[in-house]
Design brief:
There is one protein chain. The chain has 162 residues and is α/β, with parallel strands linked by helices. It has one domain (22-161): TIM Barrel, CATH 3.20.20. It is 31% helix and 19% strand. It has four helices and six strands; from the N terminus they run αβββαβαβαβ. Strands 2-3-1-4-5-6 form a six-stranded mixed β-sheet, with helices on one face. α3 links the parallel β4 and β5. Pathway: Porphyrin-containing compound metabolism; protoporphyrin-IX biosynthesis; coproporphyrinogen-III from 5-aminolevulinate: step 1/4.
């Protein structure tokens, strides 16, 4: 009788089925950045998750980096300036661009990832342009590209469409 060992066939297959080792260097901490000053406001629907103004976020990052986590993901949260096109999402010097610049200045070794989505910036809450019945995907793509470029120019290490 011959016993087949499909998981031992070659190094690539063995690596694919190897034990997972998760370390602090594999973690990405998400943050929701809000306009304003002195804001650390709980998000009721997400336990232990907060909206941070930039000044409070910079303080929080001191604790995060001390723990060894070196990657963050930023989500913008705005109240004013929302419109049908989400124009604040790709405006130069917007909330996330300012946050990225400040974070990279204060913590240059931190990997900063930004969320590329229009939902937080549109007055209708959809992730793209909306015609009243559907999201207009093709027409939204240039806006998402502009948003990604705005983040990259500010110093984001990774732009992440959600």
């Amino acid at each position: 009788m011959q016993r087949f060992r499909p998981y031992r066939i070659n190094q690539a297959v063995r690596d694919k089925h190897a034990e997972v080792r998760l370390t602090v260097k594999d973690l990405v901490q998400p943050y929701f950045v809000a306009e304003g000053f002195g804001i650390k406001r709980a998000i009721k629907s997400l336990a232990e998750v907060w909206h941070f103004s930039l000044d409070e976020l910079l303080k929080e990052l001191t604790h995060l980096t001390a723990s060894g986590v070196d990657k963050i993901l930023l989500f913008g949260v705005i109240e004013a300036g929302k419109d049908a096109h989400g124009s604040q999402a790709y405006a130069p010097g917007n909330l996330i661009a300012r946050a990225v610049e400040a974070i990279k200045h204060a913590y240059p070794r931190l990997t900063v990832i930004t969320d590329v989505c229009l939902c937080a910036y549109t007055d209708h809450g959809h992730c793209g342009l909306w015609d009243g019945q559907t999201v207009l995907n093709d027409e939204t793509l240039p806006l998402l590209a502009d948003m990604a470029v705005t983040h990259a120019r500010a110093g984001a290490d990774i732009v992440a469409p959600s």
